[in-house]
Amino acid sequence: MSIQKHYTGLIERYRSRLPVSATTRIISLNEGNTPLIQLQNIPRLLGKSVEIYVKFEGLNPTGSFKDRGMTMAVTKAVESGSQAIICASTGNTSASAAAYAARASIKAFVIIPEGKIALGKLAQTLMYDATIIQIRGNFDRGMELVKEVSAHAPVTIVNSINPFRIDGQKTASFEIIDALGAAPDYHCLPVGNAGNITAYWKGYKEYASDIDGHKAVTGKLPVMCGYQAAGAAPFLAGKMIDNPETVATAIRIGHPQSWNMAWAAQKESGGWFDKFTDDEILAAQKMLSQYEGIFCEPASAASMAGACHDISNGKIPEGSTIVCTLTGTGLKDPDTAIKQCAASHPLSIEAELDAVKRAILGNM
């Protein structure tokens, strides 16, 4: 029985647009190719004639967009002979780094803020057998330590300051254009460390131009809209902030590492940054689940909170095509989801037909 070679991940799919050679050993978990889902009910709720799509990155192998960058970062680390990788993380990066290190048979070290990581992400990192170092400090301090220790230990940094991370993440733009036939009018993203808005903008620009002998796919570029949590909004403050706080743990970052590149994406595209309260972000998370059947983690919902706000007030005009990136699955942070639904706890009844009938009819 012969086994045919199938699609094995985003590097194979976009190999000619990525910095790999024919002999590069690809470290992949079949990441990428995530669904672009058109919303059906929320546009009607908003009462606006728009097309809204969500790029659901929660369906990557470890449940977040981080896998796009990690496949490239770990592939290049292995190619360079590295035997260990390191990252600072609010959760998703640590899970992804640990998984790809396991796949490559190398060591992963992750620095996380003690008591400030969602349990779903911590569980993943533990299961992938990374060495977890908890610090009494936030992500920003962890990032400083990672950069410092890399000068003294034989480890490769796989945070988004690693340019190969950005190269991997830019492929989401390629997939969106491949699906829609053109770039959207507006692209809405949550912004924490700002690597993602940087990567998407890079991807759109590369796909819109003739690079490496490729025929241009589209000349259209989207307006890039970045949304932060009110308690962790350095782009709105116009400066780095210390001690950021938000329930959206994945964007609880006050010193973004891609600061300059994110500002460039915003300015070059004619876009903007905005911020939303934790309550507004959680309401958007619940709305996506309740009306569209899409369960994302809180940080992801910042993009939806922003899109709905700007569609409602006319900043994003009717007739527009909008893509919102949902960076991770809701299963990353089950505790926050359960707390939101405390008022609608499961019914407890007798195991009898009449009791079941009453429960159904009383909730029709």
Mean pLDDT, to the nearest integer, reads 92
Strand content: 5-15%
Q: What shape does the CA trace take? A: globular
Number of separate domains = 2
Low-confidence segments: none
What is the CATH topology of the largest domain?
Rossmann fold
Beginning-to-end CA distance, first to last residue: 53 Å
- Total DSSP E strands: 10
Strand order of the largest sheet: 1-2-10-7-8-9
H and E string: HEHEHEHEHEHEHHEHEHHEHHEHH
Q: Count every helix, treating DSSP H or I runs of 4 or more residues as helices.
A: 15
* Helical amount: 40-55%
Largest sheet: 6 strands, mixed
Task: Provide structural commentary.
- The protein is of the alpha/beta class and 364 residues long.
- 40% of the residues lie in helices and 14% in strands.
- It is globular and about 65 Å long.
- The model has no long low-confidence stretch (mean pLDDT 92).
